[in-house]
Amino acid sequence: MKAIVDRDTCTGCGLCPETCPEVFELDDEGLAIVKADPVPADAEDSAREAADVCPVEAITIQD
Length: 63
Ligand code: SF4
Description:
Alpha-Beta Plaits; 4 strands; globular; binds iron/sulfur cluster
């Protein structure tokens, strides 16, 4: 499974690293990046949850 962040859409709200810190973090620009590719098996559920909670739908999950 792969997670992708559209940084043109991301507002840097911080919800995804809060929800799934194994996969997402905010970089020096204050926008989300994916730090685990592929998504570790034990973080798949929380990565999907992060995509669900993103207020601007900037996270895409590819199975
Ligand atoms: S939840 Fe969405 S808007 Fe917020 S930091 Fe993550 S990708 Fe960006």
